[in-house]
Here is the input.
Amino acid sequence: MNEPTPLRRAVFFDRDGVVNRSPGSGYVLSVDQFILNEGIAEAVRYLNEERILAIVITSQKGVGKGLMSDADLAAIHCRMRDELARSGAAFDAVFSFTGTPECPHREKPDPEMILSAAKRFSIDRRISWMIGDADRDIEMGRAAGLAGTIRIRGEKSIGVDADYTLDQAMEILDLLKRLL
Here is the structure.
């Protein structure tokens, strides 16, 4: 008889405002606008070393609005992967809601992207976390049944409390070491 595969732990990251510098009210539309936040590579590398999945869950409606193409988005994510790789870090996957008719994902705070990732990677949501900078990230993490949520305080107003709130992305590593 085959033993069931044990479920894995994951940390889900919002992209803009957490992984990279926030573009403000607009969108990161090109690779030259993508600036990795200080401390993210170290946090992701820690997760990689601990064999905890690191997954990006991002809304990129600029594609659906015609402000950028799917190829532009792919190039930005390639830049993100390259920058992380230079530090010995890597995200395990990127799930993007683009707002296009063919997009298989649903908009935050719907938990569909987390649920899809959990199914694909055999993730135990009860021991996994969401890191975001917006209420919709926190709401999505809760709706997905995650262990907890972490907010990076930024430009967005706070209407929903997270389990933990940090002032900047470079604080993520220390918190993850305490929590995981």
User: Anything to note?
Assistant: The helical segments are 40-49, 70-86, 112-121, 135-143, 172-179. The chain has a mean pLDDT of 96.
